[in-house]
Structure to design on (429 residues):
């Protein structure tokens, strides 16, 4: 029974999980900015228990799709082998299932406080062992090899979350560089040498992105999806809206947007947020709304960046990857102007797949791949483009600093919208 991460049905379960964790002062909660996200592992399991208890009771296990896929590869298609052989990724368990190498999963006492029938969830339904991405979970089985047309015996790495794979795939192997994987949603990730709790971060996992570092993750629940909503609602193509949007100044003719069309992930972790536009008049055009939504997602990214910097977590460089950056110069220039920093581009347009290949090479071992560690493999296999860097325009950056302050006031509920409506009149063409 697949449960999709982007489906936001587990709101009641998530509220219960967070309410009990906060009341009990669960130490693991700090690794997730004080809030468990409703797209994660435990909310979806508890949702099943609450709404379909017979399905919950009948389920032998709950497993992330990536871990399930690796299991099929190494044990055979729909294997009959002992499920204790299952390898669960420390990346997926760390970011989505509140697991850490030091403390494991949340305790039975906590789970029982959430729901008495949830007490033994970990022991009974999270079967298997943990391995980090880049560790060999096994080798390609005969049946899987036949299905895929590959030789049996190829080493198979433990899985990594798709966006996180984009970090090594973008040529990043150390601390202080933020990789922004921008697509239908976005994931902003970086490595740091220390564990520093940050309110609103989606997850901090030791070795969660690269070995030897704490991987910090934040993100936005709708980015490309929000742009698509504007295009679909107006009946105008992305190409045309981008073309018209390039002609507009910062502030989109006096329109400002809130980009929470699928809730707010970082830094509010509030799935009940919704989006909107302010400053619309009878003269407002679809291109102004489109550009305003792009600007809003850039403001959201800046909000997370400032949240990290407020905790003295240094970010010295920005690299963009994912599906949207190669397609939209408008998007990338707005992001550079809003963040007020150069943005480098991953050389590969398939940086997520490249990152997975790098980890596969590490799982194969140095005798096969020639790479002794992830850093060496990243240096040899991935990099940023030398011919294209998006650099901020000083005049536009100053305008965006003013607009960002308005966005922040609106998103955080710090002011009356009426005051901002008056300010936006200054930006009308």
């Amino acid at each position: 029974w697949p449960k999709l991460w982007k489906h936001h049905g587990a709101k009641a379960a998530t509220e219960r999980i967070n309410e009990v964790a906060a009341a009990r002062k669960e130490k693991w909660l700090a690794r997730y900015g004080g809030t468990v996200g409703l797209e994660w592992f435990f909310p979806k399991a508890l949702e099943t228990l609450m709404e379909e208890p017979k399905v919950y009771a009948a389920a032998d296990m709950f497993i992330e799709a990536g871990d399930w896929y690796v299991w099929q590869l190494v044990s055979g298609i729909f294997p009959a082998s002992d499920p204790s052989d299952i390898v669960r990724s420390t990346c997926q368990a760390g970011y989505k299932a509140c697991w850490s190498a030091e403390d494991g999963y949340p305790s039975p006492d906590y789970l029982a406080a959430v729901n008495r029938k949830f007490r033994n969830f970990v022991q009974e339904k999270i079967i298997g062992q943990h391995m980090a991405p880049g560790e060999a979970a096994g080798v390609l089985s005969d049946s899987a090899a036949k299905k895929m047309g590959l030789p049996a015996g190829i080493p198979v790495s433990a899985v990594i979350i798709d966006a996180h794979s984009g970090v090594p795939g973008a040529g990043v192997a150390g601390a202080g560089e933020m990789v922004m994987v921008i697509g239908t949603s976005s994931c902003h990730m970086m490595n740091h040498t220390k564990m520093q709790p940050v309110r609103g971060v989606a997850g901090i996992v030791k070795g969660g992105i690269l070995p030897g570092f704490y991987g910090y993750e934040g993100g936005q629940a709708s980015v490309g999806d929000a742009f698509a909503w504007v295009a679909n609602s107006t009946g105008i193509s992305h190409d045309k809206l981008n073309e018209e949007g390039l002609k507009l100044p910062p502030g989109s003719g006096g329109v400002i947007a809130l980009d929470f069309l699928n809730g707010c992930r970082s830094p509010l972790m509030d799935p009940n947020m919704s989006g909107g536009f302010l400053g619309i008049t009878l003269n407002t055009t679809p291109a102004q709304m489109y550009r305003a939504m792009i600007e809003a997602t850039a403001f959201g990214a800046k909000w997370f960046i400032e949240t990290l910097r407020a905790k003295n977590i240094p970010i010295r460089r920005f690299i963009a990857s994912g599906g949207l950056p190669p397609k939209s110069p408008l998007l990338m220039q707005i992001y550079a102007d809003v963040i007020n920093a150069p943005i480098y581009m991953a050389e590969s347009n398939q940086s997520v797949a490249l990152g997975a290949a790098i980890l596969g090479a590490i799982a194969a071992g140095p005798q096969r791949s020639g790479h002794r560690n992830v850093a060496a493999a990243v240096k040899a296999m991935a990099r940023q483009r030398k011919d294209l860097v998006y650099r901020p325009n000083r005049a536009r950056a100053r305008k965006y600093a003013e607009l960002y302050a308005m966005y922040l006031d609106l998103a955080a509920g710090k002011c009356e919208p009426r005051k901002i409506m008056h300010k936006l009149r200054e930006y009308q063409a």
